[in-house]
Amino acid sequence: MMKSNQINHIKVQTNEIPDELSRTDINSTRRSIALYYRGGKFIYQNFFTQPLIGKINALEGLEKKADVFFRSIRMVGSNTFHIRLVGKEEDVRKMCKDQACYRLLQGIGESLNTEARTRTYLEVSDKHDHCDVLISLDKKAFYLANNVKVEGKEMRIRNPIVVGDRMVGLTEKREVCIGQLTPDVIEKPNIKLDMELMDEINRMGKVDLLEPAPNSEDLFLVSIKNSVYQFNIWGEMAHFEELGEEVKHINSINFNHTSSIMATDNGLYEVDVKEMPNMIKAEGLPRRISSKDLSGEFQVALYTEDPYVCGINPALGVFSKTKDNKVMFF
Fold first, then answer.
1. Rounded Cα distance, 22 and 131, in Å
2. pLDDT tens per residue, range 123-139
3. Could you tell me where the beta strands, DSSP code E, fall in 157-249?
């Protein structure tokens, strides 16, 4: 009999996506854990058997070597997507020129709406080349979003997000910059977006993370050390929350409609939230998820409410990735 604190080890299975997507392929890809591109083929991974609910499940078999890994696919407009990727720019360009990429996005896009605007995936590679792409299904075209001009200087930004008709990103100095998106970025993909620094935010300190705010078209989240701020695209602060002093950095923030989970350098924290018009408000104090197997630094923590993944309905599970790329589901 398993001890109450024993970790369950669960395997993932690997499936190649055929050129002609069937409805089964689309549905399986939507609920996949990992999605990547290798040797001209799109491949996804998911659970072979369902995880044990109430236990900590360690995932085994996630792919570590591919040309391009997906981190997330977010719907940002009519048939327009922001794709977060890991891979070399030349490999990302090759993938985005593959017509199968547009067929795949069209299939995944059918599952996205105002309630669920993002599909998020896990990658455990040792690659550090993060690329962000805006893709238009209407134009069958793409724009690499990381190379921009900030106050006239050409530079590469990281962690860009799309908020309404703006793109917000971080410079190498971890300063927030913002620029207005127009159809030119798709129709003239070699142009570099003009951006300016947001001094109202940058005066507060070096920024660790940017994330879109749920339920809003002009708010975004900014994490600085142990605090999370909500700013609008004009640089006005709407709200902020603070974790304990034992947290030095917040590495990811994820929401469902009633809770938020944060991956930090000191474990995982969860807080009850309420979605208000154009704002997310905490309903209580943050609580640390207490378990010896969920301690240390985490890169990512993500909710899933897919009953086909969790095996129960109503469903709620969490994927988390540690600093050394171990993936847990609980």
1. 29
2. 999 888 999 999 999 99
3. 158-163, 166-170, 176-180, 194-197, 209-212, 219-224, 227-232, 237-242
